[in-house]
Amino acid sequence: MTVQIETFECLADNYGFLVHDDKTGATAAIDAPDAKTIRTALARTGWSLSHILVTHHHSDHTAGIVPLKDELDIVVIGPQAEADKISRLDRTVSEGDRVSVGSLEFEVLETPGHTLGHVTYFERKSKSLFSGDALFSLGCGRMFEGTPGPMWKGLATLRDLPDETMVYCGHEYSAANAAFALSIDPNNKALKKRAAEITQLQSKGKPTVPFLLGEDKAANPFLRADTSELAAAMGVKLSDPAAVFVAIRKAKDGF
Ligand code: ZN
Ligand code: FE
Question: What is the C-alpha to C-alpha distance for residues 173 and 139, in angstroms, rounded to an integer?
Answer without folding.
Answer: 8
